[in-house]
Amino acid sequence: MITFLKLGGSVITEKSMRRTARPETIHRIASEIARALGRDPSMQLLLGHGSGSFGHAVAAEHGTHLGADSRQDWHGFASVWSAARELNSLIIAALQAEGLPAIAFAPSATAISEDGQLITMSYEPIQRALSSGLLPVVYGDVVFDRAIGASIASTEAVFGLLAAHLEPDRLLLAGRTAGVYKAASTPSDPLPVITPSSRSALQFSSPEGEDVTGGMEGKVDFCLSIAQAHPDMEILIFSAEQDGQLLQVLSGEAIGTRIQA
Hints:
By secondary structure, this protein is an alpha/beta fold.
């Protein structure tokens, strides 16, 4: 079984505080991943993570998601790359401290976009990492763009491209919130299921902190597109904020909001 797991920037960083990680949470999450893989050694896990207060803030400052042309733009591109890599290094270190053979695959090195849409990324190295028992890690990153020079590849976009080749059984998006709410401004329980027909009734608030990849609304729309392309895939949006919740989901439990076609 192949599982795609994304750790949202909201749970691994303080999104309202520039370049601020949540080290205790990162290490707890790494421990839960290690425990889940220990329980089920047959699980092949592709881990992805958002950029949170690291890459998003720098990308918004330089407008990297809108393209690059001038020398100043390309310096901004390098600054976003550096911020994304800094957070990734923290994630990799936490995973390796738990004895996991984590190895990073930076989209900036292997992916290309066109007009802001990710169109190609080398998948064979990731496929070989999975089959070799390694823990491949991807993340939101800068990429070169054929039309506008530069763009941002979200983890969701990377997952979407890789899903067509690796055919995961589960797609799990872990953040701080317990799932998706019908209206973010109205206290309620998270929706158990979202389908294309129920999407129009949802109301989304602005994402916390800088977010150049669409916030929760973008995540829901991405998941719906994946569900329609891969109707047998289990897709969950849930919280990894509390101790043990991620372990529950990796062990097969379905909590949070399910997205289905």
